[in-house]
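In line with agreed milestones, the collection of sequences with tokenised folds has grown. A representative record is reproduced below.
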Amino acid sequence: MPRPRIAVTMGDPAGIGPELCCRIAAEPALGDVCEPVVIGDPDVLARVAGRLALRAPRAIAAAVPALGASAIIPGQPSAASGAMALAAIEHAVRGCRDGSYAAMVTGPIAKSAIAASGCDFPGHTELLAQRCGVTDVAMVMYDEALAVVMSTCHRALDGTGAALNQPRIVRCAHLLHAALRRLRARPPRLAMLGFNPHAGETGMFGAEEARAIQPAVAQLRSEGIVISDPLPPDTAFTPAARAYYDGHVCHYHDQALIPFKALCFDTGVNVTLGLPIIRTSVDHGTAFDIAWQGRAEPDSLRAAIRLAVRLLPSADGRG
């Protein structure tokens, strides 16, 4: 059986993405399960490889006309670096949609550089949804030890409570449940977090639990999903809770990502659910402070590639 071709985007070339691509492309263990295809500027990759005494991977060029590798300065995001990162993403999306790639795995980008290049999206998740023509997607952070989904994602805290609604919470819980059922090969148990301190304390600290979250729990239970009542966020991630629940339904970015990155930073994976394609990503940023210095660890990118393979329809979900 042919190995699936997985598009691996370089991320922002001024960050650690090029080094990560050089490192994972040389790993024979990944080559045993898939064919990683690096998408990015070959000259940038060659510059990084030469500086770090690594072998430059063969890459499919996704360069931007009139921009060259010399325009990229390590540690300094710019409109040029954002344009290169965006070009790689666009190429990978097109390739996944036309069947050239079985899945895409994205390197870390700088949202400010992407914006400077003229693309006005708050993050990968929203950009990919627009390019794929869908709106109801969810950002999941996955590790064997912890899985979290966010019912809201890249938005300011001001107004987040008002944005919570029952249909969106139910949709995110369904997406997480389906993914975990596939990956764990059994029906998962979900934890539903509250939004306010003490999960609202029966309305003393806010109305979001009664207005949107508890009704979502009731609907999910009526559909056969095992899920908790809204849990106080400060106790939802205790060792006992993590041992019992397979996944956590959270309601804003940092409510999910602070515990996740504290516990799973090195091996965590970002997954976009609800797309017509498979997309995973590293769970960390561009690390401009150590760009092109030989200090980047490829654990998260390696895990993202392996998870993308596990999520393929032909996989058994347990690889």
